[in-house]
Amino acid sequence: MFAKPIDLSKARILVVNDDGIASPGIAMLERIARKFGAEVCVVAPESEQSAVSHSLTIRRPLRVHRLKQNRYTVDGTPTDCVMLAIQEIMRAAPPTLCLSGINRGGNLADDVTYSGTIAAAMEATILGVPAIALSQNTTPPHPAKWATAQKHAASVIKRLARLGWRRDVLMNVNFPDVTNARVRGVVRTVQGRYKTGDDIVRNTDPRGQTYYWIGAATRGHDDRRGTDIWATDRGYISVTPLHLDLTHRATLKALARHLPEAA
Length: 263
Fold this sequence. Notes:
Elements: E1 12-16, H1 24-35, E2 39-45, E3 64-68, E4 71-74, H2 78-89, E5 97-104, H3 116-126, E6 131-136, H4 146-163, E7 169-175, E8 185-188, E9 200-204, E10 210-214, H5 228-233, E11 236-243, H6 249-255
Parallel strand pairs: 1-2, 1-5, 2-4, 5-6, 6-7, 8-11
Antiparallel strand pairs: 3-4, 7-11, 9-10
Helix pairs in contact: 1-4, 2-3
């Protein structure tokens, strides 16, 4: 079912990311959240946790450090941060919205399966808190055009909050790698496809041992109209609803001819 629209002026907003507490993106997102008049709590990894996906720390204890009022770090993953924020740090007054980001680099297409930014929003959604992941697309080694996200993030969050969305869905927002003047608008998109991680660097360390380093993503352009890649390549802000249920219904239906349903 669809959740009710969110009144941002009365919201309790959890801000999290995967780039770490010192990243410019989370500082920007915190400032944006506070301008809504909402109660804001930041709970972020103490160091960068990019590409850790939905990993959870279970084989060692986690430490939470309070930096100041409503601002904490966790020596763990983005998923750890959200779980501790909702079930411990904000337990007395749980968040009514989770904002994850703003990530340095896009979270498009197949990258959503690797992304700690998406995973944080996913964990919030699983725990019953509506979530929006936000990312500023960029092309390494060029610097991120943070001004684009800063200009448009608040209005996108407001539009989505007014609409509301299904409880088992998270919203994935990607800002294009263009200047403010070249942003063409906000559009709804589907998840695109591209192969990532092909750029593997092989080298030798000072002791003569071979090592491998997974380099930058190899981004093949998905030119299908309406995908997140297609949209951001053309200067649009992409909004993709991502569903927690990974079941492929068409295949499930096809399997009915060969496998019985559980009794």
